[in-house]
Each structure stands twice: as C-alpha cells, then as structure tokens.
Hints:
It is found in: Membrane. It is a multi-pass membrane protein. The chain is built from 19 helices and no strands. It is mainly α. Helix 4 packs across helix 18, helix 7 packs across helix 14 and helix 8 runs antiparallel to helix 14. The chain starts with a helix and ends with a helix. The relative contact order is 0.20.
Amino acid sequence: MHSSPNDASHQGNSAPLKRAMSTRHLVMISLGGAIGTGLFLGSGEVIAQTGPIGAIISYFLGGIIAYMVMLCLGELAVHMPESGSFGAYATRYIGPGTGYTMTWLYWLTWSATLGTEFTAAALLMQEWFPHVSVWLWTIIFAAFVFCMNMSSTRWFAESEFWLALVKVITVIAFIVLGLLAIFGAASYQGYESAPLFSNLTAQGWFPHGLFPIFATMLIVNFAFSGTELIGVAAGETQDPAKNVPKAINTAIWRLLIFFVGTIVVISALLPHQMAGLDAEGVSSSPFVTVFNNIGIPYAEDIIRFVIITALLSAANSGLFAASRMMWSLSYKKQLPAVFSKLNHRGIPYVAVIVTMFGAVPGLLSEQFAPETIFKNLLGIAAFTMVVVWMSICLSQFNFRRQWYKDGHSKAELGFAAPLFPIVPILGFVFCLITCISMVFDPEMLPGFIGCMIFIACCYASYYTFYHTKN
Length: 470
C-alpha cells in the first residue's frame, strides 16, 4: 500500500510516526546518538595527537560549534517541526537541489556510521570469543538493530532511552572514579601519591604544536554528531515549542561536561602517547586502562559490554534517522514510491531495509584492513555530518533574514537563536574550516574525494531528474 498524504498527516506531520516522544526521550536520543565511538574510542586518538591541553581545547571548541548549530536548528525546528527536518529547511531557505543533497548526505552519514558501529562492536566481541569470525557478530548485531527499528516508534524511543542510560551512567562513574583517583581518594596503580594534574603538562603545553588541534576537529565534531537528532525527532515530539529548546540546552551542556570531563580524567591518569589506538586495534579504549589501574575487577569486561551497548544504541538511532530521510525523499516524489511504503506499525520498512545495506563496508573490513576502513568510514561520516551542519546554519541565516523582510520581529518566534547573525555565521565558518582540515590528513583524503563525488552526483541527479518537475 502506498501512503497517501492524509495517511501520513494523521500519524505525525511527515514521517509516519505518532507524536510519541517526550523531552526525556529527545534528550536521551541525542545523548545516545552522540556518546558512541567518538567518545569511547575517538577520544584517545585526539589526546594522542594533540596532547592533553590540546584535546581539552578541541572538545571545548567542538561543543561550542555544536551548540551554535543546535541553536540554529532549534529556531527552525520550533518554527517548523518536520521529520526529515534539515532537508526541508535547506529546500526552503537555500534551494531545492541543496535540500535534496543534504537529505542524501545525512542518509550517507548514518549508513556509513552503521558500518563503523557494527565493525567496532564485532571486533570487541572477538576479544571474548577469538574463534568466532567478526562478520558473524556483525550480522547478529545488524539483525538486532534492524528488529528494534522495525518495532513501533514508542518501543524504539523507549529502548533507545535505556540503551543510552547505560552509557550515561558509565561516563558519570568514569569521571567520578577518575577524579577520586586524581585527588588520591582512590588508589591508582603506578602512583604512590595523588597524581593530580601534573600529567596534563608533563610533555609541555602542546607537545605536537597547535596544528593538530585543527586537524583533529573532524573527529571531535563527529563526537558531537547525533545532537542534531533532536531536529529529526522534532516532528514526532509532543509540544515541540517547549520540548525542543529544553532538549537542546540540556543535551549540549551534558555533552560538554561528559566529554571535557572524560578528557581531563584520561589525560591526568594516562601519558598522552598511551591514549591512542595502539597495536591492539579498535578495542584499546582508554576507559579500560583507567578502570584497570583503579583496580576495578573485570574492568575490561564491563567497559567492553558498555561500549558494545553504546555502539548498538548509536546504530539504533542512526538507522532510525537515515530511514526517515529516505522516507521524506520518497514522500516528496524524489525517490520511487516504494520507499515511503509503511507496514501496519507505521514503519517505513523498505527505507529501513535499504539503509541496512549501508553497513556492508563494515562486513568487508575483516577481509581487508579493519583500521583503514574504520578510519575512512569515520572520516566520511564526520565530513557529511559537518556539511549538513553548515546547511543548518545557512538555512537559519536565510530564514531569519526572510522573517525580518516579511515584517516580523524576533519576539514573534517561538524560539530565537541569540546573537543573530553572529551565531549562524560563526557556526558555518567553523564547520567549513573543519571540512577543509580533511584535505591535510593523507589518511582522510580518499574519504574527502569520495564525499565530493557523492555531493556532485546528488546535485547532478537532482537537476537531471527532478528539477523539471518542480
């Protein structure tokens, strides 16, 4: 059955979903999207490259950029709560070709991420069960996430809430125990007295100079990605005018505390060279090393379990977001009608199935180089995410100018981003710098070129096939 417009409208205003989410779900979904590979595995990489103080600056800057983008998104989402939101805003306030391309890019972000989440989770399982092949675990995890997404929206939101809670509790425990160790209130292997913060500057303030701070911004921005899920879910939220701004403020401040707190603890307790991805591969999380040294029994198993739930929860929200993007393209007649078909639970099941194929690169990684594929997929996901963020800033900038031109005032907006036009302009410029930084990382260059080709293909296909119809 093909979903007719009224079919969709009584089930939420564009995605086939009821308004089933509260602020509690929104905050947890955005925290769940953000606390994943970027924090548990990427954070060590950033510390290793920039040194402790550099990493703190990187994550702090990343948080500020994310906050500026989310303020812009908040203004748009409260004014027009739609599922598949950034695509709709870019269509209206930048141009239909850009809206189409952003929707596809956001889809690519999450389908590439699915690959990294499943691969990382499978590599972790292999440490428990060395004889079972990575691809088998990848298939098991993919099946689990697929089933979660095929159940109802409320079930999805609830499951995501609890999966995200596991991560949040772990991060809080890590920061609290780490601080106890830093101040000598808990014993820490290798230190007779409290280590305090001497490690932060042991190698000098910036052991590798200032450039790595900019070079790692992509990893850092990727760590904050997921916060914009608030915008995707805005169309399925009760009372968006009240809940969306509340969720944005709560989520960003919590993330800043979690991320910067984590970096401070890791940096104070580990020499920065030890923090990165070492010879043991993706699973050598700095979390494990710190918990082990504090003397927590089974630290490695606990953290491994937490990271696996973290990865699955990020994949869970990712599949949700990406399938909604495909649904909205189909709903606007820019993809065949089959993609907006709903099952009896109101789930766009064809879109969910097709998006799952985005996890295929993850399956290939065992045969080829897992590290290289992992880093490239991370690069692609981060780059596309930052481009989508740029479109959010530009949409809000154009929207507000149009709003004033039509004779409206700032006071009439349900939620207005402060300091216009500084916030959208700075957000846009910082994101642009981050994108350009990819060119200077030889490992990221193939991903960058691939993304550029993908963007060119999106614009070409839009102007070849759809432009004439509009």
